[in-house]
Amino acid sequence: MPRYGFNFQWMFWWEEGKPPAPPDERALDFLVEHSFDFVRIPASYWFWTRDFNYFHPDEVVLAQIDRYLAACQSRGLHMCLNLHRAPGYCINDNHLEKHNLWQDEIAQDAFVFQWELFARRYRGITNNLLSFDLVNEPPNLGQYGLTRENHAALVRRTVAAIRAIDPAREIVIDGLGGGHIAMPELADAGVIHSGRGYQPMPVSHYQASWWSEHVLVTEPPVYPGTVWAGLTWDKAVLRDFYQPWRDVQALGAPVHIGEFGCYNQTPNTVALAWFADLLALFQKFGWGYSLWEFAGPFGIVGHGRDQTHYETIHGFPVDRALLDLLLDHRVRD
Question: In a 10 Å sphere around its CB, with 0-12 CB exposed, 13-18 middle and 19+ buried, how is residue 76 labelled?
């Protein structure tokens, strides 16, 4: 740590009869050529588990994760394997789960089983190449029965189970409240704390239909100056927002921003101004980060935001200004 890179959705959206995507070798080559070193794989357990039969995974599908790791390993890239959809919880369409990760013993047993499975499978792989991100973006406090206490208990149980198999494995935990809320109660857990870079939401998620509050935002965003949650957002407000994460860092826990990005309905001039402040703060705090996503409406490639200058690099239409910001805002030795 810190590490810098992108999220790749190769095993993200499960559809009946649709296999996971192969690793995008050309994209990984792009990362290497621009000195990025981090690949986060948000995965849905539905790909290797059928009908909530949690304890009988499909070996054919798991072999595809092996291929992701091999593609990263051959290039010296670190792969962070994340359960975006875990037994009993997903931030997207959680109602499709049969059980509740925060309340049901079977879901918690299944969650631990899944990570024990990966711990055995990848035992001994160096931390330079692999980490485990336990569950993507736990909900708000009180939602689905989550409390700080039951969340911390599950994290500690899972970390202990993984390390009983692979004692040195690097483990990541996402903040509560969709990744935004720091967890001082787990500062001593010996894990990396993964935050998010999406605030203020009217800038990063303007007209994003899956964000339930998008209907409240009726004017195109500006930055600085967007008013949200009773605050007028600028660099100083962003700095204050991350103070709880800096407090956790001061307790000895490493911090990494596992996701950040801006949806393509925000004008690119606004997005770039916001990115510049956000990345400058991450650099000052000593945090690595991983853009959501490489290609697509939040990505660096072909995102489609208005007023963007694209430069063709190795066949990709790349937002040149955003690439420069990502390259310039790294922790220097």
Answer: exposed
Q: Is residue 214 part of a domain?
A: no
Total domains in the chain come to 1
CATH of the domain at 96: 3.20.20.80
Rounded Cα–Cα distance for residues 118 and 116 (Å): 5
Q: Are strands 310-313 and 316-319 parallel, antiparallel or unpaired?
A: antiparallel
Structure tokens at 85: 């959809």
CA-to-CA distance for 189 and 124, rounded, in angstroms? Answer: 21
Residue 223 lies in a domain: no
Q: What is the pTM of this model?
A: 0.96
Which among 202, 260, 207 is positioned nearest to 231, based on CA atoms? 202
pLDDT in single tens digits along all 333 residues of the chain = 589 999 999 999 999 888 999 999 999 999 999 999 999 999 999 999 999 999 999 999 999 999 999 999 999 999 999 999 999 999 999 999 999 999 999 999 999 999 999 999 999 999 999 999 999 999 999 999 999 999 999 999 999 999 999 999 999 999 999 999 999 999 999 999 999 999 999 999 999 999 988 888 888 999 999 999 999 999 999 999 999 999 999 999 999 999 999 999 999 999 999 999 999 999 999 999 999 999 999 999 999 998 899 999 989 999 999 999 999 998 875
Boundaries of domain holding 19: 4-200+236-328
- The C-alpha atoms of residue 39 and residue 310 are separated, in whole angstroms, by 23
